[in-house]
Amino acid sequence: MSMNNTAPIIDVDAYHRDGYLLLDxxxxxxxxxxxxxIDDILLKEDNSLxxxxxxxxxxNQHLGDxxxxxxxxxxxxxxxxxxxxxxxxxxxxxxxxxxxGVIEQILGNQLIINNASLFAAEPGTTYKLGWxxxxxxxxxDEIDEAKIFSKERFHxxxxxxxxxxxxxxxxxxxxxxxxxxxxxxxKAFTGSKHYAPIEADMPGAVQLKxxxxxxxxxxxxxxxxxxxxxxxxxxxxxxxxxxxxxxxPTWHFYLLNEDMFTDDYLEKMSPEVRTMLDEYFxxxxxxxxxxxxxxxxx
Length: 298
Ligand SMILES: O=C(O)CCC(=O)C(=O)O
Prior knowledge:
Elements: H1 12-18, E1 20-24, H2 28-42, E2 77-80, H3 97-107, E3 111-121, E4 127-128, H4 145-148, E5 158-163, E6 170-172, H5 183-189, E7 206-207, E8 214-218, E9 224-228, E10 235-244, H6 263-268, H7 271-286
Antiparallel strand pairs: 1-8, 2-3, 3-10, 4-9, 5-8, 5-10, 6-7, 6-9
The structure holds 2-oxoglutaric acid.
């Protein structure tokens, strides 16, 4: 895919300095249309919302939820979109020209999608994911912070959150993506290199107030978390990750479960999404070993 000149121009230096950036992406019509495509699938008559407010731990949210379970518990849901035939009606978002165009300004061209999900919750839900950097695939004793969180190392991955309602649930520590943890941050992590305890206080934390239709682009090496005491509006936030095929991928690239791509599913995809998936698998053949992405030579 090549640079699209209708995408907004972003301040790439500010993105690299802070590790994140907010920008306007969707107008009201685009938002409403996406929202109705999503809610048509999510709010089926038979998934009645239980309304009982209690806290469900979100630690393992990345394992993914089932669409038909939506609302059975008052919890934050995480739906995988790349591997789910039920969510095909809004897979066009993966190749949206504005999204691709802004990410190309950071990573260069030949973008490959490697993650896509939907965060969804109903008003009254409490959501707390522990502070982390997205390094969960790396065994803790192999995380060499000075090597992988540095200004010198180009991080070939951009993550994007795209809320369709105002979303205040993403918290970040600005600038933490290109340096190891400070002593105070290490204290907050209490010895873990993956997740801090849910109630940990993180120094320098900033809550991102992302308006409906805006996007937060971020370097997912940032110390960040998802957390909201109580959603006042529904949460419908799309979440995607890309890298450029012009450079080796990072560990974020390896989350996709290849077994989910049955011939039947691949055949039903739109030609654009099918091409994106074909490009993903070509890249995966080129870089088959996830552990090379952190055990690299200087
Ligand atoms: O809920 C969010 O916005 C952030 C989720 C998150 O931290 C993650 O998926 O790694």
